[in-house]
Each structure stands twice: as C-alpha cells, then as structure tokens.
Amino acid sequence: MLQRWTAGRFLRLPRFARFDLTPEALNKRIPQRRLLSTTKSPNAELAPLRKQLKDAARADRTARHAGVKATCTSKAETLSQWELTVGIEIHAQLNTSVKLFSYASAEYNEHPNASSWPFDLAVPGSQPLFQPAVLVPALRAALALKCQIQSRSKFDRKHYFYHDQPAGYQITQFYEPFAKDGRLVLTPQDGLGHKDDDTIEVGIKQIQLEQDTARTQEQDEHTSLIDFNRSGHALIEIISLPHLHSPEAAAAYVRKVQSILHAVDATTTGMELGGLRADVNVSVRRTDDRSARHSYSGVTGLGQRTEIKNLSSFKAVEDAVRAERDRQISVLEAGGVVEGETRGWSLSSPGITRRLRGKEGEVDYRYMPDPDISPLYIDESLVTHFQRTLPPVPEQLLDMLCTTYGLTIDDSRALLSLDDGTRLLYYQDVVSRLYTDTAQPRPSVQAANWVLHELGALLTTASTVWSPDLVDAQQMADLIVLQRENKITGPSAKRLLRILFDGDKSSVAEIVRREDLLFISMTNEEYDELAARVIGEHQAEADAVRQGGKRSSGKLKFLLGQMMRHGGRNRVQAQKAEEVLQSKLKPNDV
Amino acid sequence: MPRVTRALQQSYPRFIRSSPGSYRINKAIASAEAIASTQRRRVQLVGRHGAFISRTSSGYEEEEDDQQRTSYLNELKGASAKSAYTKDFQQQIDHAKVIAVKDNFVTERLPTTCASSILNGFTGNAESTVCRILQEVGMDIAGKTNMDEFGMGSHSQNSAYGPVQNGFGKNAQSPGGSSGGSAMAVADGIVSIAIGSDTGGSVRLPAAYTGTVGFKPSYGRISRNGLVPYANSLDTVGIIARNTNDVMALFQILDKYDPADPTSLRPESRTRIHEARRKRQVDFGHHYLESEDVKFSFVGPRSKGETPAETSMPRDRYKRYTSGYLRRIGVPNEYNIAEMHPVVRQAWLRTLSMLANKGHTIVPISLPNTKLALAAYYVLAPAEASSNLAKYDGVRYGTPRDLSTADNENGLLYANYRGEHFGEEVKRRILLGTFTLSAAAKDNYFVQAQKVRRLVQQDFNNVFAFGHPLLPHTRHQNSSSDRTVDLIIVPTAPTPPPKIQDLEGQSPVQSYINDVFTVPASLAGLPAISVPAAADEDIPATPDRHVGMQVIGQYGDDLNVLNFTRYDIEGTMNFDEARELTWSRKRM
C-alpha cells in the first residue's frame, strides 16, 4: 500500500515554479494554492532574502560612514573584568537517502513537494516508520565527537505551532538521546582568540536525532509558500556544555564540528548551504564574582543566559556572540538585569541582537513520549563496527601527514583542505607507488612538492578544476622516481609534467624518449672543459666574479646560464656546474 | 409496560410493528445500495438514526426517487431468482458481504471526516489497512458511520454531522459511543457487521447499548494504519456484529502483522504468544478448538434453530468442545459499585449463575487500582489527543482556511481556525491534554497517570493464570491456584442506555463515568468483548433495558475470549431465548 504514495500523487501538491517566481506563473502552476500557502505571520524575520541583503548592505554603509563607533575604545579594559560563557546547539542534516520516519527521498534537488510521504505531511492515519539507515551517519558523527552511544534511546514529541511543522510537533530525543558525554578539543590552529587558553576541551552534553522542518518561501506580504521536501529529514542536534569563553572560540568550535562531520561523511553540506545551523547560549559574569547563581548541566556559577537562534555562518556565530556579550555587559554596567530570553540576529542589522520573545512568552513544548515509536536499541556490535571503520578526522590526518609523511604543517593543511580531500587521496596514491630509500629528501616530501606546488601552479595557470585523472598517479610516480634517480633534470621534469598535464597519456618512459629528456651526466673533465670554454668567451664577466663584490653573484649566474646553454640539452646539472665555475673563479686572494 | 411498548412502536416502526415485507424491503434497499456498486458516488447523507456520514450509492441522490430504488430491487429479485438461494429474499441479502466502517478509517473512495467539521471533504489517498483487507476478501464497504468527533464521547452526540440516536423523539436513547453509528448500522440491520475503533470502550459501550456484540482485541493485533488516531497507545480496531461467531470470523481475517503500523504486533511476538498459549493448553489437557475455520453466519443458509456456532462447525466437535473445558471466572469486587443500576446488577448475577450452572468456577478477585483507572485514562487519552490533533491547521487538507480564520495580528497562528472548526468536546479535551502535558502540571498528571496505567496492568497480571506472554518477568507458572482466573466477567456499563434528553443536563464528568468498566482493559491493552446479557425471563427485554456483559482475557488471549463467549454465553439456550426477545435481532 505504501508504495502507492508516489511523488505528486498525494493531494496533487503543486510545485514551486523553479525559475519563474512571478505571482502569475505561480498561480498558473498552483491550482490549489491554499494547500501550500498560509497568510503571513507578522514576523520580520521572514523578510525576503533580497530585501535582507539590501538592508545589510545599507547598514554596512551607514556603519562605515559613522566611523564605526560601535566598539568603544576602553573595551579592552572593560572586558578584562568580565567572563563570557557560551554553549552551542548545532543542528546538522544527516547524509542519508531517506527521511527519518519515512521512505521518502531525502535528496535536495527534487522539485518542491515532490518527495513527501503522507507522514511527512502529517496526513491523518499515517504513521512513522523509523529508517535504520539514518543510524549510519548519526553513529559516525557521535563516535567522531567521542560520545558514549546509548544502548537504548527514545523519541519524544516537542509541540509548537508553525507553518513549517506539519504535525504541530517535532519528533526529537529529549529525555533519552542516543549519544551522550562527548568532547571536542580546540587548539590554537583552530583559530582561538588571544585570551583563550592554549587548548580548550569542549564537553558535548548529548546528540539527539530529530526531524527537520519544511522550507518556507515568502511569496508576497500575505503569502508564504511551503516546500515539504525537507520536512522530516533526519537531523542531529549536538548540544555542547558551556565551555567556550570567547567569540573566536565559539566560531572555531562550530567550524571544527562541521569539518569533523564532513570528514566522517555524516553530513552532505555545511553552513554555507544551510546544512548546518547553530543556536548560541550566551552569558557573562564579573571575573571576580563567584556568586552567580545560574547553572547548566553541572556547570555552576553562570550569569543569566540568553539564546540567539538560527545562526547560519561562522561569522554570524562570532559576531552574534560578541554583540550579545557587549550588550549584556552594558546592561549590567548600567545597573540593569539580563532577562532570560530568546534573541535574533540578522544580516540587516549587524552588530546588535534583537529580542524575539521573553521568558513569559517562552513556548512550553509539552514534551511527550511518542506513543507510535518504540525505543531505539543500538547493539554494541554495531557501535564497534562503526568505531572500527570510522574515517579519520582532520586532526588525525594532520598528525599523520606531519609525522608519518614528514610534511610541514602548512603543506599538510593545504593537502587536507584542497579539493574536498581528493587531492590528499591522490597524494597518498602517488606515495604508495614510490619506493622508500634513505636518500634525502624523503620521497613523500618530494611527492608533496609535485602534487601540491608544481601541479597546483599548472592548475592555477590553466584555471582548471582539479581531478585525479588529470595526471595519472602512476605517471606522476614515474616522474618523481626519474628525478630522484637523477635521470632527468629539474627543468626537464617540469616540462614532462606539463606534457602529462596537457593530456598525453603515453607512458613516462615513452615521452622521455620522444622528447629526449634523459639526462646523461658529464664527467668532471667535460665540466672543466666546458667551464674553461665559457670563461674564455666571457672574460669580462669572469673577471668581475674573480674580483668579488656586489655584482659577482649576478655574473656567476650569467656564466652558469652560458654553461647550461652550451652544455647540450639536459646534460648539465646546475649545482655541479656552479661548483666547477666557483672553483675556477675563486676571488683573487690578496 | 404499555408505555414502553408504545415507545418501541414509535422508535422502530419498520422493524418491530410494520409488516415483515416492508422490513425486508427496507433492508434490501440498504444492502442493494452497497451491492450494486458499479457506479459509485459519494453521497453525503445522514442515514437512518444518523448512523452514516457517507455511503456508497448506486448512482442516485438519496432524496431523488423511489422509482429508481424499485428498479434496483427488481434487478435484485431477478438476480435472486437465479441464485442458489431463491426461496427467500433474506438469504440473498444475508449472502451479501456488506460492511460498515467507522468514519475515522481512511478510505480512498469515501471522505474521511472523523465526524469533524475540520476534516470536511477530506479524502485520503491511501486505503487504511483494515479497509484494504476487507476489500481483498471481497467485502463491500457500505459506508462510513457516524461517531463522536475524533472518537471523543460516549453517546455519539458530538458529531458535526448530527447525532446518532437509537429511536426517535423524546424516547430516543443513546446508542453509546463513540462507535455509535457502526453499532446502529448493525442494530438496524443495514449491515451484518461493522468496524469501529475502541480507545476506552468506544466499541463495547455502543454494543452494550444497542444489544449487539462488540469486540476490542489485544493492542497491536489489528493494524491501526489508516485509523486516524485519538490516543495512539490506547486505540484498537474493534468489530461490531450480531453475534460473536461473526466477530471471530472477521477477527481471524484482520488479525495480521502490518509493517506499515509501527505498533503492530511483530511476527516474532505473535509466535511467542502462540507458543505460550499452546504450552498452557498442553499443560492442562485442554482441547480448545481455536484455529478452526470460522465461517460468517450470514453467508449461506442454516437450518432453523441452529446457533451460529453450530452452523460453523461439525456437531460432534461442538459437543466435545462445550463439554470439555470449564474455566475459572473472575468477578472483581471493585466493579460492584454503588452507582450500578439494579437492572445491570441483576443481569450480571444472572449471567454468573448461568455459568456456574454450566460448571464454571466463579472466583471473587480484587483489582485494587480500578478506581484510579478512569482518572488515569482521562489524563492520558486527552494528552495524546492534544498532540495528535495539533496537525489540523487547514494548511494541507481539510476545511480550507479563509480570511476570518487567517493568522491575525496578535501573533495567533491557527487559533481562530481551530476554534471555529473543532467541536466543544474536542476543544475541552485538547485543553485538558495541553494542561496535563504543560511543564508545570506534567509531573502531577501525565507522569502519575502513566504509573497508574502500569499498576492497572499489574492488577490484571496478578489475577490471570496465564502470564502476560510478552513480559519476561510475569508468572508463567500456569498453575490454577485458588486466586487466579482464566477470564473476568463484568458489566460493560454501569447503567442501561440513557435517554438522549437525559444526557443534555449531564456534565462532561458524568458522561466520562460511563467508561468506568471499559477503561481498565484499554489501559492494559487486553482483549475484551461486550455481549448482550442473558435476559430476565420475567421481564420483556426492551431496548432501554439492554445490558452488555464484558468478558476480559489476558493479553494475547483473544481467541479464548471469543470462544468462551460464543460457546458458553451465546451458545446456551438461555441466551438464545433472550436474543429472540431483543428487537434488533428479531428474525423474520
């Protein structure tokens, strides 16, 4: 029976116009508009994106004209008297092919309302069917964040009314989440603030599975259009302990969580595409004040906190925390009291947070165990399996590149960050084809130079997008071996790479033969002879070198160039030639 | 007495006092409408006694013409002349497997409203599992029956499409609720069997009030997929019929695992239940005939004087069965409440003495948490309902929203719309549930009620000789000590059916008290059936004296409950005579 719920059949839910968003076009395509539209609530947060961006630009201009008075000069002194505390809730969309409680596709590129099953639309009589597949990314995420996986967890309903919440409640794990007690270590390399400690260990209170909401799109002042494709998609919510004490650390935490989730393939998109959203809880207290009476999950002595919801970029996290900290400090310094409330942050008014609702207006979510969904039992063997097969997180990879491969930290970072990790895989592939010897530099270091810098330069020049197929890994390895064995010179090797990069698929040996790139080393006598010839032809320069002084090194280079030119292709090794020249043109000893 | 007789005449003219011929025709129309279903149309109409919200129709509007009906009847006559059962119209009609379904089961061809204005015009696009199975076995859904809005009520008066009544005028009496429409469709003879839903007694109470048989199986045995939930953890699919035999026949069809329902009993659990019951039978040397192929009594002819049970099995097996197995029957002290109507108490005693005469052992037992059960039920059910009904906002389906119910400037979102389209009782229970789940009240209400629920379940586990087959630590001693019992027999309701005009002055709480005997089995998820009690031979049985007896069994012991009811209660001559006197089963 369930298979009969194919896309578009149910209620014939109309689709968004994909390109043409004029009201006329929408009317044409949406015969039953009421199914999708609701009249608008007086919520300024829902202003159209274009307007938001315009407002942001305007606000930015105004701020610049005003000379940015927002940050007061005595701030540094003021700040030293206050301690900021931040806890963060991160919502991340899991990388799954189905929704949390239905077989509907969780692809993001579907037409609006094309991938919704009855349960995702809260159709009467439909029931949730838990999809075990969502456990794969969820467990990876929880293990990567060093959580304890709970053998038994439960689902609860969290009630509130909103257009994007078809059932009137969200199914989440409030009382018994599937993962608890994780941690994440931040280091200076993660971009901590100057006031932060060297490393910060951020405790993760819990990770819970929950449903995503539908997507709302403003059509005009009176109408919102709703796309239920996202409704019911599996999310994890990662709740940190209040262990962060600077805006920079807050942003670093979110950035690091995103990179870890991405590294273990738990999520598909990051903040930039809306795959990750953060709510921050901010409180301040005087540094010398130990009497603050608020607490959160075992962390005591905190000031009254406020929550800023729905931050969608790292910069927004940092800016919002900073702005809220400054606001709370100025309230307290003026003798006021910080209210426990929910605040908003928007592009259109950078630098300030805005009150959304106070404590008295706080929604009572009326959590209730979902009577249709049985508890989730996760077997120990499953946890062990995912633990064993967990992809390494960036930190482990960095460590591996620095120690095992002997790369510099900058090169390691570059390899990690490039091309979504495929460059790193390519690099490892190339290295695995090289043999190890005791010669210096190590082959892995040399390979990094070729993969990262030489190939990188070609990519930049050609404005080409990276692909591991551009230069076959075996060809690259052959090239590096030839150079290591001094069978071709550096310039020849570069030329060879250029040829390979341009798409020549012949074997490296073949190309070397064809292009006559092989280096045949000269004897010492030949070097002497060549050097003598060049010196004879360029007496003036040779004298200049002999005399020493400012211009001698430039002249030496000129003579070296002449040697290379006269020595026949690919035979002269620059280093050797320079040695010979230098010995012949020793500065005149007095 | 004369006054009562007159009331009968007024209430049920077609059935009781009009000529047999006209009764047959009336009955024929109803069935013919369903049989001749080649050109189905959706017709919104409130049937006789308000039993239906929507019915399949053979292509005419109800008010249109009698002429067309007559032609359908003639067609039917012609057809019946050729059929195997030509002698009597009745047989032809009985042969039709026509079934009525409560309006909270989603159907593809008929709208599903749950008797609420908020779902006016909603037609689901997937058949509920129950309706799909019914059609797969060749049954025709005659229509969707009226009910209390979203199942909230005990008298089927809270419907946006008009109340259901048993009888007419000032003597009209309550058909019970919330499956009152299904019960009346059976009692009126429109269908032989109907589907209802039972959350806290919604099938058993109407059965008791209309003199029909109503069965609520163990939680999870029949799929709830496509049943619009009132309180998910309590909702079960119920069956109403004229006799237990038919209930059992349909139950065996519907008793299947359904992967689409996450609360459906899984095959492994069904196996465990089966094994536990088989072990118990072997231990005691019982030979119950449980898995035999039970046939519908209304399919095919049967000889005069035969009971339904006799029809459906060979006579020697029947004899062996009825003489072979004597049960220990529990009578809980806590159910003998002061508020019980004398008519009900007498019927209870009569039934027990009849069973004692047959050799069964009557055992006084105690279920100490019975009193708390009703309060717990009215905390848990509204709490789940307030959550389940949050989805009705008019955005995706149901009655469209208009300007008067649009979001207004005060930050209200759906309040106007929901306020306008939900009925009073629904709003009351949503508020009740919202309160009991609120942060301030939850620990004192919702959490406590869940504890009471567990205690009620323990009460039952303590008295049943058959240990709960799915709980690891309950007794599996299978010993018949002095204190344990096989089944429990209690009345279905504390009073006979009330008159509708008497309901009007009732407070909601008074109306909730009606469920006091049915709620404990619901909280514990146990199988329970309501059958008409044996009649008092000295007083004529009249519809206002209907009393239902409830047989409750251990979780998973559904077939034991059904077999006991059909052989040991219905199967007695005493009972059969009583049924002859009941108007709704008067045979032509």
Give an account of the 3D structure.
The complex is a heterodimer of chains A (590) and B (588). Residues 1-47 and 67-74 of chain A have low confidence and may be disordered. In chain A, helix 10 (422-432) packs across helix 12 (473-484), helix 11 (443-462) packs across helix 12 and helix 15 (524-537) packs across helix 18. Chain A has 3 domains: 12-97 and 182-363, no CATH class; 392-515, no CATH class; 524-584. The longest helix of chain A is centred in the middle third of the chain and has 20 residues, at 314-333. Chain A is 37% helix and 17% strand. By secondary structure, chain A is of the alpha+beta class. Chain A has 18 helices and 19 strands. Chain A has helices at residues 23-29, 49-65, 75-80, 135-144, 247-263, 314-333, 380-388, 394-403, 409-417, 422-432, 443-462, 473-484, 490-501, 508-515, 524-537, 539-547, 552-566, 574-584; strands at residues 37-39, 82-93, 148-149, 152-153, 156-159, 169-172, 179-186, 200-211, 215-220, 223-227, 234-240, 276-286, 294-296, 299-302, 306-311, 341-344, 354-358, 368-369, 376-377. Chain B is of the alpha/beta class and 588 residues long. Chain B has a single domain (2-372, 447-585), classed as Amidase signature (AS) enzymes (Alpha-Beta Complex), CATH 3.90.1300.10. Chain B has 22 helices and 12 strands. In chain B, helix 13 links the parallel strand 8 and strand 9 (361-365). In chain B, helix 3 (20-35) crosses helix 4. Residues 1-47, 57-95, 300-305 and 573-588 of chain B have low confidence and may be disordered. The chains are: A alpha+beta (590), B alpha/beta (588). Chains A and B meet through loops of A and helix 14 of B.
